[in-house]
Write a structure and sequence with these properties.
Layout lengths: L1 E5 L4 H11 L3 E6 L11 E4 L5 H10 L3 E4 L10 H21 L4 E5 L28 H19 L4 E7 L1 E3 L6 H7 L3 E4 L5 E2 L1 E3 H10 L7 E5 L5 E2 H8 L3 E4 L1 H13 L22 H6 L8 H5 L13
Length: 312
């Protein structure tokens, strides 16, 4: 299978490219510099909105597109988020139709449901996407997810898959969840102990590849662990915690984030306040998503004294 991979220069994008390269021909495309990108895989530093990107799709005769080129950086303005993500995704969808590509896989996020106080214990794929009520970055992610959902219904001839994983963690990941677990002293919110799920980057990779299988279409929640309370995760990490009132920690983060003292954005606090537990029965039945690693193994790179890559 010939696969176009967007967002290929990101840390997770590079891992996905290597995984797919074992069984498929992969071409990466990303507006960011291809730092540390595997030399054996074709990769282009091009903005999806440019004519040169269309030429790659036109000449590549691709069977599938894996869309990972969605950023939700909390430091971007509304306009920057919109132009980077919405315009790029809309352009990509147009090109998929124009050049008769038969498969589209979007790596979205379980965060689109939003960590809110009224969440049911297990959120299925038909639940409303409530994260648009929070930050600019999450509103953009929700907008991309909804755009691909709409594309799914308009173009039934194209097998469209949306993957919504829970918190992805691992030694090579630099998202909010992994940054939080890497802290030497872990702040918690007094009065809150939400149920959480994690999925390791290693467990995510085969599910991404399985989404490319012929006949697979639809929306799938992904998780690698059973839901457990936050205090249990922190106990495994064996790190000191710092319980703080929500208002105190939020106020500190707002100032520290603006001053670039920290990279953990204030809206991320809601993930250590409220439950956002995903129902993964559909992915288990269709993608073969099974819990293959114990929580202790997933958390090993983050434990106190760990020498794993990226654990510092």
């Amino acid at each position: 299978m010939r696969i176009l991979l967007t967002g290929s220069s990101g840390r997770l994008g590079r891992r996905v490219a290597l995984k797919l390269h074992r069984n498929h021909y992969v071409v990466g495309i990303d507006s960011r510099p291809p730092n540390c990108f595997p030399i054996e895989i074709e990769n282009h530093q091009i903005d999806l909105r440019r004519r040169t990107a269309e030429n790659i799709l036109k000449e590549g005769k691709f069977d599938a597109v894996m869309h990972m080129g969605v950023t939700h950086n909390f430091r971007f303005s509304n306009e920057e988020h919109y132009t980077r993500n919405i315009f790029s995704t809309e352009k990509l969808l147009q090109l998929i139709v124009k050049y008769h590509i038969k498969k589209l896989v979007l790596l979205s996020s379980g965060d689109v449901y939003g960590p809110i106080a009224t969440n049911s214990h297990f959120i299925d794929e038909d639940a409303p996407l409530m994260a648009s009520q929070s930050s600019t970055g999450m509103r953009t992610l929700v907008a991309v997810d909804r755009a691909v959902q709409s594309f799914f219904w308009r173009h039934n001839e194209i097998e469209t898959v949306i993957l919504r994983p829970c918190h992805i963690v691992g030694p090579h990941v630099r998202n909010a969840a992994s940054k939080y677990l890497r802290l030497n002293i872990v702040p918690t919110l007094m009065g809150y102990d939400p149920m959480l799920q994690l999925i390791s980057e290693e467990d995510l990779l085969p599910l991404v590849e399985n989404a490319l299988m012929p006949g697979v279409r639809g929306v799938f929640n992904l998780a690698g662990t059973e839901p457990v309370p936050l205090h249990y995760i922190l106990k495994i990490l064996n790190k000191p915690t710092l319980p703080l009132p929500y208002v105190v920690l939020k106020t500190f983060l707002e100032h520290a984030f603006k001053s670039r003292m920290v990279s953990f954005a204030p809206p991320e606090l809601d993930h250590i306040r409220f439950n956002a537990v995903l129902d993964t029965r559909r992915s288990q039945e269709v993608l073969g998503a099974k819990i293959t690693r114990f929580l202790e193994k997933i958390l090993k790179p983050f434990k106190a004294g760990s020498l794993y890559p990226g654990s510092s």
